[in-house]
Amino acid sequence: MLQSRLTDQDRILDTVEESLRAETEGVENQLERILSNINDQIDTIEADVRQSESIARIAEDSVAETTRELRDDVYGLEERVNDTLREVDTDLREIREELEDRIQQMLDNPLNDSQ
User: Fold this and answer.
1) CA 75 – CA 84 distance, rounded (Å)
2) pTM across the whole model
3) CB-based contacts of 112: which residues, under 8 Å, 6+ apart?
């Protein structure tokens, strides 16, 4: 009888061991699938980050180029405005000289003497 109980207990232990082994394998398989899924997601995220960095570099290059072009345009415009202002200043000086000469001629004209 004791021998029979020990044999029954051995069979129960064998069954429990088999069940635990099966559950352990199932959990290990689930963990492997989860890890594989996580690794795939990490790869996707890394690819997205690389693409985002590439887009950011392209955008930075475009902004830098546009900034240079805008700066060059502003410098060109500033130069043209300065040239125009110099021309206007020269024209105004010439007009002033002409007006001063005319005024002087009018003052020097003996017909203007009304004494």
Assistant:
1) 14
2) 0.54
3) 106
Residue 77: enclosing H or E segment and its boundaries? helix 2-108
- Token readout for 64 is 């830098």
Provide CB contacts within 8 A for 106, sequence distance 6+. 112
Residue with tokens 């546009």: 66
CA distance 62 to 48: 21
Cβ(112)–Cβ(106) below 8 Å: yes
Query: Is the CB of residue 68 less than 8 Å from the CB of residue 61?
Result: no
Instruction: Give the tens place of pLDDT for each residue, 34-69.
Output: 999 999 999 999 999 999 999 999 999 999 999 999
CA-CA distance, 45 to 51, in Å (whole number)? 10
Can you tell me which residue has the tokens 């130069």?
79
Encoding tokens for residue 100? Answer: 């001063």
